[in-house]
Amino acid sequence: MTTISPDNIIEIELFQNLFFQSIDKKFVEKSIIALVTLFEENDNFLIATNLATYAYGERICSYLSFKHDPNQPQRISCLDDMKIAQIDSGKNFVAILTDDGQVYLASDSNNWKIDNVINCDRFKMIRCGREHLLLLRQDGTIFAMGDNHFGQITCHFPSSYRTMINTGIENVELIACGQFHNIAVTNSGEIYSWGRNDCGQLGLGDNRDRNKAALVKFPDYDDDDDSIDTRIKNIVAGSNYSLFLLENGQLWGCGSNSVGELGLGDKKNRSKLTKIPIDNVQKIACSKFHNFSLAHDGLSYYAWGKTINGDWLSPRKLDGQPTSFASAAAMILSSPITFGLTSTIYVFEYNDPLLAIQSISRLFNNPDDFDVEFIIGEQCIRAWKCYLKMASVYFCRMFSGDWGENNRVIIKDYSYDIYYAYLRWLHDGYIRIDHTNIDELFDIANCYCDERLQKQCKKFIGIDLNEQTLIDYLPLIKRYEIGTGGLQNKISHLTMENVMPKIIDNLLADDNENCMEKFLQWFYFEQSFLEK
């Protein structure tokens, strides 16, 4: 089972004529919900359906000891019933991150001959370089494996393919890998880079390689007394360059620019962060194996760098209305590619003295040791009342009152998955929040007076709020009165800079004489809400 975000839903017709002509049409048209291209050649795939994950292509099948059949994708049985969060590949290896934080590796290289799964930790993000792998643990610590010729796994270690190296970099939220360099962004917004730097891709103002993470600073910025807001929204790395997307929609870059991959109108490399002339960017993408970049501003897709039509030195708007980064890539390359499989999933943990004892997690849903069952439909979750009363104000009140004598509690207001996730959160401090469960999780956090979970739900909305999600989150923001402070500023910015201009453009372009009148009626009707 695979969890995907809307931007990762791939138009299958892009690949059907090129690669999937012989596969059963029913499988292609009805079963595939997402796919990821692998390696530089883009002719090997991992295919996701609602039930399983499949491999297709000679190289990936050989990695998994399958025989490639052009008529039939090969099912990867060890991933059955698992949710896939991310997929990435290097020159000769593939890494898969599951929803529960496990990382699976596949390769035919002698260097990467290790066990299929890295079991020792839970991870929330992976990134592959050409010959190395970064793993971001749930607590924000970065680990690395693979080649270290340019210091990309840090320090003076030799290359390490069988043992993870703790880089010592902590409190990290985002990571990115180019071919031989890395970027990381911390919880406080600091940017670090290390590895190969021959083109200035580390953004440090020189061309010296680094085997230790170095702090990247934005240049002094003063334009009509307007100071730059350097809060990072996303980072990506191309083969020998790096891109930094800010929350305010600005895009900055550094590194190789020999074919225009920085979009600065020339072919000069940059060793310091330089602003790229494109505004209101919402999403970005590039590939470690190619030299082009893509951006989306909420309405249109833009591309620059090396294309089948020559070197584009500045961002160009793509005609033909591409609907994803994959379809945009198909317009500028000889074959379409995808950009991994990354869900909008954020993992939150809290530190609580009650969790200091590792055995506490054993109290959760233990079939041999419990004193209360929560019944949701035909399923049940087992726990201990004593611990729940210590962990939750709500359970303390309920087990001292209405539920005090009950060993079986019927839950009607929440789904099994949500209630299971919440009870597990109380035991091990681990919960995943995404756009599909935020509504229920926020409701249970509010009803159960769980301020810690309320805080994490608010944090998720703040992270995930953009022009596309604004309309979905407004009811939650109003219902739970969370539109204050930084979140209110973000809503105001999105509304004024992105939403209102489009509304005005649509009104001016509409030939219907009643359109403006209807808009004004709606405005006055909603005025009381707007004033709040």
Basic shape: globular
Low-confidence spans: pLDDT under 50, at least 5 residues? 1-7, 222-227, 342-358, 528-532
Number of helices: 13
Name given to the CATH homologous superfamily of the domain at 347-482: Potassium Channel Kv1.1, Chain A
CATH class of the domain at 347-482: Alpha Beta
Task: Give the number of DSSP strands.
Answer: 29
Q: What is the residue-mean pLDDT, rounded to a whole number?
A: 82
Strand order of the largest sheet: 1-2-3-4
The CATH topology of the domain at 347-482 comes to: Potassium Channel Kv1.1, Chain A
Distance between the termini: 42 Å
Helix content: 10-25%
Q: Give the name of the CATH architecture of the domain at 347-482.
A: 2-Layer Sandwich
Q: Structural class per helix/strand content?
A: alpha+beta
Q: Major beta sheet, specifics?
A: 4 strands, antiparallel
Based on CA atoms alone, the radius of gyration comes out at 25 Å
